[in-house]
Amino acid sequence: MGILVYNVPTFSYLFKKEYMAIKKTDFSALKKKFSSDAKYKPQRYFDLGPAFLDAVGLPGPAMGHINMFLGHSDTGKTTALVKTAVDAQKKEILPVFIITEQKWSFEHSKLMGFECEEVVDEETGELTWDGFFLFNNNFSYIEQITDYINDLLDAQEKGELDYSLCIMWDSVGSVPCKMTYEGKGGKQHNASVLADKIGMGINQRISGSRKADSKYENTLIIVNQPWVELPDNPFGQPKIKAKGGEAIWLNSSLVFLYGNQKGAGTTKITATKDKRTVKFASRTKVSVMKNHINGLGFEDGKIIVTPHGFLPGKDAAEEKKSIEDYKKDYAEYWKNIIGVDGEFDLKEEKVYEQE
């Protein structure tokens, strides 16, 4: 009786080759049936000027995304917000101001190039501001704000609001959720509402506008009040955290940090003439704390904040030139402020670095 002997390596090779050919054909059909590659618009940014680009390596907030401006008081967040609105107007994107911290100034915004005019309200006789923008500061709790944003996006979808939107909220942390407003909740309820309303709803609508077949491209920029988390060991460092929990942080594609983690870390520069002193500028830091778009951004940027916007100032020589040029360009403004033609002394407070 003969013995049948298989050439095992040859059999294995032939079987594997045939199996893979079948598998490849089957997978190609499956991929065609179940895969879908959505097309998105090219990534664009709002332009906050060359000084900002030089400091952080990005022009400004990313269009079609949620962006966060995080930092302690007086570190340049509002200046960045206004410069974003200025560029939005230039791009014919409708700026929408959601103001809950009640520190907004149209006079300051106009000084930085925002197009707005003071007019008399025909119904009340009161002075108000008009221009290519929407403004709303009539909010008591978070749900009113998120409903307002959704109403804007609904109106856009219906063709009632035929513009791309740049929605700017200043700031999270300044209003509670409805339950907390009514005295029945606390911090955890504020965080829960933000996670639900922003993370599970508005984020999808904002990011969805980046699709190539979308008529509009909408952006949400949120200024966030901070708190500082103390280290859990003697060798750790304090870390800045956003009020309202992690929802805004997690759903933000870009997070810009203004100032330092522990404190503002800014220094003031004052203009002095004949014993009269006014704030001239501030030296601050700005960095990219999170970038889920292209991963780029500097962590050691320095910038000068003036009433008219940002000046470059990454080193002493550049800062000196920036300030001298600025004094010449805005001599008339400073003449009205302190009564001289650009000739005045500059004094600086002592530097206390807070990392």
Concise summary:
The protein is an alpha/beta fold. The protein has helices at residues 8-34, 50-56, 77-90, 106-111, 142-157, 178-181, 187-208, 247-251, 316-329, 331-338, and strands spanning 66-71, 94-99, 117-120, 127-130, 134-136, 165-172, 219-224, 226-229, 239-242, 254-258, 267-273, 276-291, 301-306, 309-312, 345-348.
Describe this structure in words.
The protein is of the alpha/beta class. It has a domain at about 50-265 and about 285-315: Rossmann fold, CATH 3.40.50. It is about 35% helix and about 25% strand. It has ten helices and 15 strands. The protein has helices spanning about 10-35, 50-55, 75-90, 105-110, 140-155, 180, 185-210, 245-250, 315-330, 330-340; strands at about 65-70, 95-100, 115-120, 125-130, 135, 165-170, 220-225, 225-230, 240, 255-260, 265-275, 275-290, 300-305, 310, 345-350. It is globular. The relative contact order is 0.15.
In DSSP terms (H or I, runs of 4 or more residues), the helix count works out at 10
Query: How many angstroms separate the termini?
Result: 88 Å
Give helix % range: 25-40%
**Poorly predicted residue ranges:** 351-355
- Write down the overall geometry: globular
| CATH homologous superfamily title of the domain at 50-265 and 283-314 | P-loop containing nucleotide triphosphate hydrolases
Supply the CATH architecture of the domain at 50-265 and 283-314: 3-Layer(aba) Sandwich
- How large a portion of the residues is in β-strands, by DSSP E? 15-25%
Taking all residues together, what is the mean pLDDT? 88
The profile of the biggest β sheet is: 11 strands, mixed
- Main structural class: alpha/beta
Q: Remind me, CATH topology of the domain at 50-265 and 283-314?
A: Rossmann fold
CATH domain class name of the domain at 50-265 and 283-314: Alpha Beta
Number of strands: 15
The ordered string of helix (H) and strand (E) elements is: HHEHEHEEEHEHHEEEHEEEEEHHE
- What is the gyration radius calculated from CA atoms? 27 Å
